[in-house]
Write a structure and sequence with these properties.
- Residues 8-16 have low confidence and may be disordered.
- 59% of the residues lie in helices and 5% in strands.
- It has 3 domains: 31-351, no CATH class; 359-467, no CATH class; 470-570, no CATH class.
- By secondary structure, the protein is mostly helical.
- It has helices spanning 25-36, 49-63, 82-94, 100-127, 131-141, 145-148, 155-171, 176-194, 197-212, 219-232, 234-246, 248-264, 277-285, 289-301, 312-327, 340-347, 359-388, 392-401, 412-428, 437-458, 460-467, 470-485, 497-507, 567-570; strands at residues 6-7, 70-71, 74-75, 307-308, 490-493, 512-513, 525-531, 546-549, 556-562.
- Keywords: Cell membrane, Glycosyltransferase, Membrane, Transferase, Transmembrane, Transmembrane helix.
Length: 584
């Protein structure tokens, strides 16, 4: 029976020579900017996650209240506040230069860069000097990251916390102070990003490591663990204590519903998990890190490479976090983002055979080049059709299925940006020889950079048009100004969190929700978010004052009604009272 060949060296530098080609720091910086900048600015908040997140960021920026996340005047206890606080800082710092959504979205790049630094330092500990740059490259190449990595989502802060927590555990047995600081701060950030899940998985990993891995049974690791507790507990404790002091009921809501309730399904807040969801998602979401990790472990089991004991935190965290996600009631691909942090470190094991050159890897690199050419050509053709309407057949296909309602418009700056991106990728293409696993990863990351860059430049105006709510609420504003001018209240029903946030942003309007506010029933104005023709019984057959919908969206409509009597008197007894609004 074969077993994995693990090195148990405890020296402070590299445990195993990685034999990866050296990459200039300047080349890596150029590639990072080419990957990161397109799509980070230049569009409105997109549905659903960016929309409600931006509403929470605005509240912190306006009021300075960091204790209770508030959306359109109501407490929103699904997530702790660290992402909203950091985004509010960026909004205040750059709001005079960029649009408010673009300024706030810069925080996505901030947290992603922190994630890369944590992953790079962990890779340096496991594989040696220079491996950290390959960890960044492999992370940038993961298929699931480009879109989410450019959005205002709190999961990016969780991602950074997990990366630094794993980094701290890899360094803890040899540098307890640095390892403890990284683990403690990473756990604190993970907690303040999304609650108990992140620090819970990190903490369980840290506790099990010395029980399962002999290399972690030493006083240095114990010291690092104590330092992590001392460093990591104060900030979460500060927020929790302030929240409890402000409103014990809100604290209970956050703890029971938005932590345990999401896991056992009693919260009814996210999409219900389907069978084998993450097992079906990870193969594409974590490509190529996941197959490279499997290949590296296969070669270690065959005795052809040696693995480092410093890989144990990444492997154990991945197993724990994946198990929790599989057992949870809710599931989204977004929730898999923290799994990329350990997978990138494990995937580097598949690149350590740098000198194992073969014609097979050369063929794979050629296929990647052909794929890049074909996808870029298709992207340019589609982008040209979206800009000019030519060729008509392509434009008709795109506007009928994907960009319904879009009117072709020419944006020269987008084409200039795309041309610069293509020039950068072509200049970097041959920097690593192609007949190695490292050459494949290098070209694959360039391919992802090229395709994402083309989408985020040539397609961005049309994408923004299809994902934003500006047209909806700008169209409703004149009608909503009437009750405001008459000092009358406006009730709403079935209005989701993203819509409430952007109604506040674009129109300065906060409705009174029938679902949560008793005084809303005294209003004579009612705003309904109708899905697939759904209407309250009292509104059926009544002509609305105004109707708006997103261009090309026939399923979601916004209808404003005015009645001669309060809603309470018109709502039929037989009609069920509105339940929780459909947030996301």
């Amino acid at each position: 029976m074969r077993s994995l060949n693990l090195s148990s060296s405890s020296r402070a530098g590299s445990e195993l020579p990685h034999r990866l080609p050296a990459i200039s720091g300047w080349l890596l910086l150029i590639l990072l900017l080419a990957w990161l900048l397109p799509g980070l600015v230049g569009h409105e908040p997109w549905k659903p996650d960016e929309a409600y997140t931006f509403g929470l960021v605005q509240h912190v920026a306006r009021t300075g209240d960091w204790v209770v996340p508030t959306l359109a005047g109501e407490p929103f206890m699904e997530k702790p506040p660290i992402f909203f606080i950091s985004a509010a800082w960026f909004l205040r710092a750059f709001g005079d230069i960029l649009s408010p959504p673009d300024a706030a979205r810069l925080t996505a790049g901030f947290w992603l860069v922190l994630t890369m630094l944590g992953s790079a330092l962990a890779a340096r500990r496991i594989y040696g000097e220079g491996a950290g740059r390959w960890a960044i490259l492999l992370l940038l190449g993961c298929l699931g990251l480009p879109l989410r990595g450019h959005q205002m989502v709190t999961d990016l802060a969780l991602f950074a916390g997990v990366a630094w927590g794993i980094c701290g555990m890899t360094w803890a047995p040899v540098r307890p102070l640095a390892g403890g600081l990284a683990l403690g701060l990473g756990g604190a950030v993970a907690f303040l990003a999304k609650g108990l899940l992140g620090p819970g998985c990190l903490g369980l990993t840290a506790v099990l490591l010395p029980l399962l891995v002999p290399g972690y049974r030493n006083g240095r690791y114990g010291l690092a663990f104590v330092i992590a507790l001392i460093v990591g507990l104060p900030l979460p404790a500060l927020w929790v204590s302030q929240l409890y002091a402000r409103d014990p009921a809100l604290f209970g809501l956050w703890l029971s519903i938005n932590n345990f309730g999401r896991f056992n399904g009693t919260a009814h807040l996210g999409p219900t998990a389907t069978r084998f969801f993450y097992l079906k998602t990870l193969p594409w979401y974590a490509f190529p890190a996941l197959p490279l990790a499997l290949w590296g472990f296969w070669r270690a089991w065959r005795g052809k490479v040696q693995l480092s004991v410093a890989m144990a935190p990444a492997l154990l965290f991945f197993m724990i976090n994946l198990s929790v996600l599989i057992l949870a009631s809710d599931a989204r691909e977004l929730y898999a983002m923290p799994l990329l942090a350990p997978l990138v470190l494990l995937g580097l094991a598949g690149l350590t055979m740098y000198r194992d050159q073969s014609r097979g890897w050369s063929s794979v690199s050629i296929l990647v080049a052909l794929l890049a050419t074909l996808l870029l050509a298709a992207g340019v053709v589609c982008g040209y059709a979206l800009a000019t309407g030519t060729p008509p057949a392509v434009e008709a296909l795109l506007t009928r299925r994907t960009f319904a309602g879009w009117t072709p418009a020419w944006h020269p700056a987008a084409w200039v940006a795309c041309a610069l991106l293509v020039a950068v990728v072509l200049g970097l293409w041959r920097r690593v020889e192609r007949n190695t696993p490292a050459g494949f990863v290098w070209r694959w990351t360039l391919l992802i950079t090229l395709i994402w860059g083309a989408i985020a430049t040539l397609w961005l105006p049309a994408l923004d048009f299809g994902m934003r709510y500006r047209e909806v609420f700008v169209a409703l504003k004149p009608a909503l100004d009437k009750p405001v001018a008459q000092n009358e209240c406006v009730a709403s029903v079935w209005l989701g969190e993203p819509q409430r946030a952007l109604l506040d942003y674009y129109d300065g309007m906060r409705t009174r929700r029938l679902e949560t506010m008793p005084d809303a029933w005294s209003c004579q104005w009612l705003l309904v978010q109708s899905r697939s023709g759904q209407l309250p019984a009292m509104a059926k057959g009544v002509e609305p004052v105004a109707v708006a919908s997103r261009p090309g969206d026939d399923t979601e409509r916004y209808m404003l009604y005015h009645f001669d009597q309060p809603v309470r008197q018109l709502w039929p007894v037989s009609d069920p009272l509105p339940g929780k609004s459909q947030a996301k």
